[in-house]
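sorry for the late reply, my laptop died twice this morning and i had to redo everyting from scratch. anyway the thing you sent over, i finally got around to it. pasting the sequence first so we're on the same page, its 246 residues, then the predicted structure underneath. double check i copied it right bc i was rushing
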Amino acid sequence: MLDGFVKNALRALLPQKALSAVKKVNDTLFDGTAIKSYSQQGEDMILRNIFEGQEKGFYVDVGAHHPKRFSNTYLFYKMGWRGINIDAMPGGMKIFNKIRSGDVNLEVAISSKKETLTYYVFDEPALNGFSKDLSEERIKKGNHQIVAKVDLETSTLEEILDGYLPEGQEIDFLSVDVEGFDLRVLQSNNWEKYRPKFILVESLEFDMEKMEEDGIYKYTRTKGYSLYAKAVTTLIFKRNSIQALF
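ok and here's the structure:
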């Protein structure tokens, strides 16, 4: 909803016809009942239903990208939750430290083992990643271009959680979106030690009619998780040992 300052500024700057058009758009989009989603595919709305009424919680976001844009965790940060944000983009944590200062923000590349990988930086940061095949496929589509290639040393998710997860802290949800390397991130966790209640993970090749063949689906099943919900390309898994919340 437009606040008083913005309304007064618009009245001073815009002719009446333009002001009426702005008001119409505002009233259409923000009618007092809408809930704002920050996720790319509405994942935070699904999570909001799952964790309804839970005032405090903890998340881990691998491939966090941006503190607000396409974020599965920012809504929860605004609600008072806290967590760990991880992204490989060089310099990417500066804006996280400004907007999400209550979180632990780490500029780290995650893979299934410690190694050196080439990081492909696109003109659209949401596409950045380590997959050469996926990066080349996106270039062929002609919509975006690689602007830089950077060699980065990787760590494992287990190492990060060993070093930064507060002692005794349970992870309410783990979000993984690393453009084709998502399974490697899952494989880098110690599932005996760190068992999030829910896992969100991107699976670009997932087919509902052939889900048993999907690598991420099969892997999470072996770790005691079941498919609970789905957005467009995001799978949401629930730990089998907890009761469904809705």
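Strands lie at 58-62, 82-87, 104-107, 109-110, 116-122, 146-155, 173-176, 198-202, 225-230, 234-239.
thats about all i looked at so far, will dig more tmrw
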